[in-house]
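Progress against Task 2.4 (sequence-to-structure conversion) is shown through the following example record, which the project officer requested during the mid-term review.
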Amino acid sequence: MSQMPRQAALPTCPSCAEPVDAGDRFCGACGYDLSAAPSRPDDHPTLTMNGSAHPASAHPAPVRPAPAQPTTHGTGTAGILGNPGAEAPGANGTAVPVAGAGVPGTGASAGVPGAPLPPPAAPAASAPAAPPAPVAGVRFDRPSEPDEYALQAPDPRVAAEAAAVAETAKVCVACRAGRVDDDGYCENCGHAQPRERDHMEAESGPIAAVSDRGLRHHRNEDAFGLGCATLPDGSPALVAIVCDGVSSATRPDDASLAAAKTASESLLAALPQGAHPQQAMHEAIVAASHAVNALADEPATAREQAPHQNAPACTLVGSVVTAGLLVVGWVGDSRAYWVPGDRSSPPARLTEDDSWAAQMVAAGLMSEAEAYADERAHAITGWLGADAYELEPHTASFKPDRPGVVVVCTDGLWNYAEAAEEMAEVLPPDAAARPLHSARVLVGHALDGGGHDNVTVALVPFPAPVQGAGSA
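Structure tokens generated for the chain above:
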């Protein structure tokens, strides 16, 4: 017969069976701890999801016999608590597995969802319950899934490629964070990066040179070459070459670099073979001229695209110092100065400019002050390049009677110390002993004066000190 659904009974204390309120932690009658969880059964409860029993496993886990439990409230499923294999009678008398029966925490006890389970009682000695056959189904004793799963190991090839890119990438000198692209600008802050030739310093034995882009030019078009050689008699020879690219020509930086490298290499190769320093200087200038001329050998299409551009061109000034001889050579308006160690002796300029101003002075048409005040003063009349009128290398040799220093420089320096006396005043007194420091001082003087042009200077002491000799 049908029945009205019964109201769920209040939970009771597992110890004294007195009703308790939801949320109580202790029984008000006997003080039983209601939050104490029952001991975990050693069985492996299962559920059949489709109502049909699955074959048992080959090695079923042992199941503890279900103890008899007193039931004070129930809805028809009481009495099968704790029996994982409990079955309820079906409508036709067949046994039907009960979902949730014997599963802790499912609320099957006394028909009250979420009610605490009573502690297991001792099994009856007279009639022990036989362990039922386990039913295959869903396991509820599986370990909980981890909160985090192990990530897949990175591909070592990808990691190696990323490390190689990070190692070769340049970091911005301004923000120290962005990567520098192929155009020389930071991808983070957009700052233009200094080029390798913006500031160069070199020291070779007792000689040194410094080159700087200056404060107005966007690149450094100067170059220099230094070296020490040993003459056939075992005495030393010092070589310094300074070149200034012609800004109105195309690729002036390439022209100056090619000329400085070729001329210095030619001198360092010829001097140990016994060539006279002055003759070696002449041949070095001719070799440098050929190297610059070769830069103009471009495809015809390149010349057609830029017909207004001149061929690469530069000026050159160099010095060779031995134990008793000082040789200079030049083409253009780069200069060489002689500054004696004894500053009471007068300094001297060792070169004459290939320029419009020098021609006006030599012809007596203008005074030196008037000529160099003219806007055409720095227009050069001689240079190295394929479109030069005629190559006329200038060489001169001197035999100073006292120690001193040869200052080899571009017009980016002598524009701020034009007269020999001015150059001697700027040059530190210990230039022969500290050439690199003194070259930095001269470049700083030009920058402090405005730095309108590239600045390059090389310092060569005279006489050439014997290699390996130290102060007593």
